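Batch job 17 of 40 flagged for manual review because the log was empty.
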Amino acid sequence: MELDVSIDKDSISIPISNPFHLDIDAILKKIEDFVSSKGLNLNDVDIKGLLPKMVRGIAGCEGGCPANALELVRNGFNNFDLTYIEGGILLAKTELENGSVLNLKMFPDF
């Protein structure tokens, strides 16, 4: 899996080598470093709660793919605007303090 994190036109890609043993703290640190490099901070943006749900939505197809991803989009999560994109891609958007939009786009491995 891969996570693409973008703010405006700048982005980073974070590989997720084992979605079933997610190193959430390492991923969150990379995201925080990227966001702070733009002079911003995450404040109350719950990325730590969102990422496992996004991973389960793509990799955890217990209910049949893309059922879990669609369920996450249907139920929503905090202040994120969630979208399922054909091909198993999940997109989460939220606005940061200065009006910049933080996009988290997760791509499956298949």
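Reviewer: the log was empty due to a logging misconfiguration, but the result itself is present. The mean pLDDT is 86. Unflagging and moving on to job 18.
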